[in-house]
Design brief:
about 140 residues; about 25% helix; 3 helices; globular; alpha+beta; 8-stranded antiparallel beta sheet
């Protein structure tokens, strides 16, 4: 049985002028993809008018709320005691988002209630990933 949890997350987009603009976002976790978390943004705020989803490891989120973590397209680090920064890199530019640390920690705790750390079953997720990568070959 697949269990999916979603949690709205209040994000603040940090602009080039150091202004913070509220951005709707949602955190999502599924037992079908137990190593990943998904950060969803609605279509009305994307450049091309479609929903945007960033997917990265649950472990990265866990590490990032405590200390700087990440490489490549996603970096996460604490910002004071109350906030966490998520930095997203794409071909279109970089987005710097601030989240309330407690909201991210609550989401992680809920995800560990669905699939505890170290108990992730990789077989089905690996099969789906390989099928997607290889185009059903």
């Amino acid at each position: 049985m697949t269990v999916t949890l979603e949690q709205p997350a209040r994000a603040l987009l940090v602009t080039a002028e150091d202004r913070e603009v509220p951005v709707p976002a949602s955190l999502r976790y599924s037992s079908d993809d137990p190593l990943a978390v998904h950060l969803d943004f609605p279509a009305d705020i994307s450049l091309n008018g479609t929903m945007v989803t960033w997917t990265f490891s649950r472990e990265l989120l866990e590490k990032g709320v405590r200390a700087p973590a990440g490489s490549g397209d996603v970096h996460i680090w604490p910002c004071g005691r109350l906030r966490t920064v998520v930095e997203l890199h794409s071909p279109y530019g970089t987005a710097l988002l601030r989240f309330e640390k407690v909201a991210l920690q609550r989401f992680l705790q809920r995800s560990y209630g669905v699939v505890p750390a170290g108990r992730e079953e990789l077989g089905p997720a690996l099969d789906r990933g390989l099928t997607s990568l290889l185009g059903g070959v």
